[in-house]
Amino acid sequence: MLRSLVLLCSAAASAGFRPAVLIQPTRTHVARTTDVSMINLFGNNDESRKQREELSLRDARPGDRKVTFRKPNAATQGIQLGLKFTEDFGKAVYIDKIVEGTEAAKLKKEGKIKEGDEVTMVSATFGDEMWSARRIGKMRLEKSIAVRQGMTISFVFESKDQKAKQNNSARQKEIEKEKERMTRMQKQLLNEVEQEKKKGWSIFG
């Protein structure tokens, strides 16, 4: 019996037989994506207040660059207007490309729009009201365009230079506000010192 088993193993080896090797599944390490921190709409900081204000708007503000496009009275896509959009990491939507031979190309020649402009507002489904389009993402903007009823649709665009000026203006206002606060505190302190001097005592000895 033992001799038969040895002969069988020798025959298998000479025939090129190799024992099956069990392959252990390797563990793949999936990189964890960083959670995107969303702005707290109910916060009390300047960014939260600004976002709430923008969401409450129902029309372009004085000085905003509002541009109206003609469109078919049917479901429409941005590409039919001559606009290709892109979005950044924060879901802000920009004009990526303007298609030649379209109304968008005509508006570009008139200096009303250009590549790189951010879309900040878009027409509501009905009527003349507008919705905020800040940080809504390309997909939601396209849906807003598709459901728009009527023969026109309007957008508010903001250039990078304009945005930088607004940010600088906002920062300047904050600086001025802080200066006023410090001035009030200094006046209050001086007033307290004068009051103590009148009493015959000084905080400076």
Characterization of this structure:
It is elongated and about 85 Å long. Mean pLDDT is about 75; it is low at about 5-10 and about 20-40. It has helices at about 1-15, 45-55, 80, 105-110, 135-145, 160-200, and strands at about 65-70, 85, 95-100, 120-125, 130, 150-160. The strands form two sheets. It has a four-stranded antiparallel beta sheet. The protein has a two-stranded antiparallel ribbon with strand order 2-3. It has two domains: about 45-160, PDZ domain (Pdz3 Domain), CATH 2.30.42.10; about 160-200. It has six helices and six strands.
Short description:
This protein is an alpha+beta fold. The chain has 6 helices and 6 strands, in the order ααβαββαββαβα. The radius of gyration is 34 Å and the shape is elongated.
